[in-house]
Structures are given as C-alpha cells and as structure tokens.
C-alpha cells in the first residue's frame, strides 16, 4: 500500500499501524496543500477494506505484503476507481486543477495508470456529492444530480477494463467534456466549508454496517468548518462507530478545534524537497516540472488566469488601498509603498499596471475569472500578504507602520476565512478587507 504516495515518511507509520491493527478510529493527516494527504487517506480506505489474504511469514515488516496497489480483490478494484460503497469523502477541496492536470497526463501518457489518475481526479470531486449526504434542508445535492449523472456516463465511456484508445479522437472528446462538466460542478455546487447537515448525514452513514470490512469517512480541510458543523462532528468523534474510521485532513492544524485535536492521532506530512516534488510531477503526471516548481505551482499552470496576473491584481488592490487612504488624509506608509513598488517592478506588466487607477473589488474579481476555482482567490490574498511581509522584513518600518502592517495581515487572513469558511462572496470579502485596511491606517 501507499505505492502512489511519494516521499512522505508518514506512510511507513500508517502502513505499520494498519498492518498491526493499531490504527486509531480517528486520525488527522496534517501538512501543506498538495503534500499527498488525500492520496494517503484513500489508500488507508483501500488497505482497510482489502479482502486478499495476508501472506504470513513474509520477510520484512508486516506492512510490506499488505494490500499492494496491484491487488485484484473486488474491494481494491472498486477502491482504485473510487467507487467503493464504504468510502465517503466530504469537505471542500480545489479539484478542478488536478482534473485538468490529470486530463493532460492522460492525453500524454495514454496508459492505464494515467486513465486511473484521471478517473480518480474526477471522482475526488463527485464523491462529495454522494446521495448519502442528501438532506431535506439542502437542495444543492439534488440540483447537482443531473451533472453527476452526465459525469458518470462520461467515466463509463473511459472504463479502464475497455480499451479507450481504439478511437483516440473519441476518447479525447470524452475527456474534454468531462473536464468541463467537473469544472461546472465545482464552480456551481461545491461548498467552500462543510455544512452541518452533511456532517450529520455522514455520521449516520458511518453508523450503518459496512458493505465490506470497514467504512472510511474522509473529512478534508477539517479546519474549514463553521461552529455548528464542528460541534456536530465533535459529538461523532466522542462516540465513534466501531466499524468506521475517520480520516481528517488539514493544511492548518492550528486552526482545528483543540477538542477535535485531542480526539485524533496526528500523522504529519512534510514539505517535500524540490527534487521530490519534480519526481511527483514526473511519476504521477508524466510531465516535467520547471526548476524550483512545487506541485502546487505545477497545478497553477492549469488556472484560467496566469499566476503572474493574479499577483499583479493583488498588487493593484494594495495600491488602491494606499492611494485611497492618502486621499482621505491619512498618513503615508513609506515602507509599504516601497515594497509594493518593488513588487510591481518584479512582475511582468507591473510597470503599466502600477499606473492604473484604484480598482473596484467587483472589477478585480471579474478580471480573475470570478475567482473560479477558489485557488485564484487564495493566491490573490497571498500576493497581498507577500507585499506586507516584504515591507515588514525591510527593516524600515517605524512602530506605527509596523502596527498597521500587522493589523492588515490579520485582516487579509480573515478575508481568506470569510470566503473559505463563511461562504462570503470574494467581491464582498475584498470590499470589507479594503474598508478594514483603510480604517487601520
Ligand atoms: Zn485487495
């Protein structure tokens, strides 16, 4: 197991705990985005359900012979296509970029492995719309149902047990339309934070008997839950069903409620080195990473807006806040201005953009493809935060400017939560961020 998880020591700990039957009922996989947490969670689900007999007396660790990726047992076959009834995935995730990257890999490699990669990338999204999560108070799932049906039909055409490349142009067309359907599904129906009704539905599901050996509920970005959802989830963790394992993931362990943390064992995922990240791009996506390109930045190649344009929009936003606060008679922030000018100078097209007038939030969001996928919004705020950090590190801020910069940093982080936890629109979040920033000067 874990053959597809590259350069993460946590996998040997997890494999060992699974093989010895010591995996706790609730665990947390903690690490940066794109560090392999979901890959690991899905492998845990597969390994716990594998029906193949264990080979006693194998040399090496007990984990070595368990649930190999090539296992042909009926359970593993379903898990490899992410179509096992004992697997449920909830929580927000940016799926669309990985779908695009996997589609490109499939087009390049035309192998069974790449076909699985693509189908899995799509199901990582559609699993979040399982009928098991349906709730009377929420029409979103039923509205998404026709789209899901179209996607499943498309996947059917790419069935790994058939040979899709007998007619290459037909397969390429099928892949292209699946990518568009997946993007539509994510943009229109995926929640930015886990709703309480889904927590309740997922908990009820976990209490039902498994179809096979074990049920696994994966809760992604467990830090992005509103209070009601957190409390409902905490109740489930307090009395976990015996036939289920909860696998939580987070990129911000510090933002997970301490009462939840105290009920899970954490497995830490490390930031991979540059060489290891290129290895993932090469081995998994059959592509070459640029020098210094992380897996996250590799995925960003598939954004509808180039990362430099997003960074430039962030700089323009900050420039607008500075210009307006001067207009309102507030005192200038020289170190911030200098850091911003340096940022404009470093970005392609920055010099021209720096001379444009202060942009409206709505105009910015429209230029950024309405911040769909949401990764665009997070990159936008990250580019604002970067200038603030540069200014703070320049060593030329006085006490007043330092105080302004730290309150701006806090406001920018809150603006990320406003969208990803509280489902506020990016335009409203940026409008209130601009107001908060000007008031803090
Ligand atoms: Zn198996």
Description:
The chain contains 19 helices and five strands. The chain is mostly helical. It has a five-stranded parallel beta sheet, with helices on both faces. Helix 9 (227-238) links the parallel strand 3 (215-219) and strand 4 (244-250). The termini are far apart. The protein binds zinc ion (ZN). Residues 50-52, 67, 71, 73, 75-76 line the site of zinc ion (ZN). The site of zinc ion has 8 residues, from helix 3.
In short:
The protein is mainly α and 441 residues long. Helices cover 56% and strands 6% of the residues. It contains 19 helices and five strands.
Structural class: mainly alpha
How would you spell out the order of helices and strands?
HEHHEHHHHHEHEHEHHHHHHHHH
> Quick one: overall form?
globular
Largest pleated sheet: 5 strands, parallel
What brief labels describe this structure?
441 residues, mainly alpha, 2 domains, 5 strands, 56% helix
Task: Itemize the secondary structure elements and their pairings.
Layout: H1 10-19, E1 26-30, H2 37-49, H3 74-80, E2 87-90, H4 96-109, H5 112-126, H6 140-157, H7 168-189, H8 196-207, E3 215-219, H9 227-238, E4 244-250, H10 258-261, E5 265-268, H11 274-285, H12 295-300, H13 307-327, H14 334-346, H15 350-354, H16 361-367, H17 375-393, H18 399-420, H19 426-440
Parallel strand pairs: 1-4, 1-5, 2-3, 3-4
Helix pairs in contact: 1-2, 2-3, 4-5, 4-7, 6-7, 8-9, 13-14, 13-17, 13-19, 14-17, 16-19, 17-18, 18-19
């Amino acid at each position: 197991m874990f053959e597809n998880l590259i350069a993460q020591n946590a996998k040997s700990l997890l494999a060992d705990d699974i093989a010895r039957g010591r995996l706790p009922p609730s665990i947390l996989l903690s690490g940066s985005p794109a560090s392999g947490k979901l890959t690991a969670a899905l492998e845990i689900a597969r390994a716990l359900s594998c029906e193949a007999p264990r080979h006693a007396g194998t040399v090496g660790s007990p984990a070595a012979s368990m649930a190999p990726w090539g296992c042909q047992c009926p359970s593993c076959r379903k898990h490899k296509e992410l179509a096992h009834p004992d697997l449920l995935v909830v929580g927000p995730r940016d799926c669309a970029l990985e779908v695009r990257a996997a589609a490109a890999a499939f087009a390049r490699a035309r192998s069974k492995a790449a076909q699985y990669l693509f189908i899995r990338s799509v199901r990582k999204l559609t699993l979040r719309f399982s009928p098991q999560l349906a709730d009377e108070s929420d029409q979103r799932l039923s509205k998404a149902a026709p789209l899901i049906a179209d996607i499943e039909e498309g996947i059917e055409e790419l069935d790994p047990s058939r040979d899709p490349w007998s007619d290459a142009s037909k397969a390429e067309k099928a892949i292209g339309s699946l990518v568009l359907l997946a993007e539509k599904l994510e943009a229109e129906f995926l929640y930015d934070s886990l709703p309480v009704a889904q927590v309740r539905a997922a908990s009820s599901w976990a209490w039902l008997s498994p179809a096979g050996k074990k049920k696994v509920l994966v809760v992604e970005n467990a830090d992005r839950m509103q209070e009601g959802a957190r409390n409902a989830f905490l109740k489930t963790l307090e009395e976990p069903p015996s036939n289920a394992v909860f696998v939580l993931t987070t990129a911000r362990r510090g933002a997970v409620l301490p009462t939840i943390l105290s009920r899970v064992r954490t497995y830490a995922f490390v930031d991979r080195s540059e060489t290891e990240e290129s290895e993932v791009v090469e081995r998994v996506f059959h592509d070459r990473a640029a020098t210094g390109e992380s897996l996250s930045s590799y995925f960003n190649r598939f954004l509808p807006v180039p990362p430099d344009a997003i960074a430039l929009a962030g700089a323009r936003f900050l420039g607008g806040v500075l210009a307006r606060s001067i207009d309102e008679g507030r005192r200038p922030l020289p170190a911030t201005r200098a850091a911003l000018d340096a940022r404009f100078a470093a970005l392609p097209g920055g010099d021209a953009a720096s001379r444009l007038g202060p942009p409206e939030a709505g105009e910015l969001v429209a230029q950024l493809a309405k911040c769909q996928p949401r990764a665009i919004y997070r990159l936008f705020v990250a580019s604002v935060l970067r200038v603030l950090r540069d200014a703070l590190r320049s060593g030329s801020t006085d006490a007043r400017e330092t105080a302004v910069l730290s309150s701006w940093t806090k406001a920018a982080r809150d603006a990320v939560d406003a969208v990803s936890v509280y489902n506020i629109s990016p335009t409203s979040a940026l409008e209130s961020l601009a107001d908060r920033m000007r008031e803090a000067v």
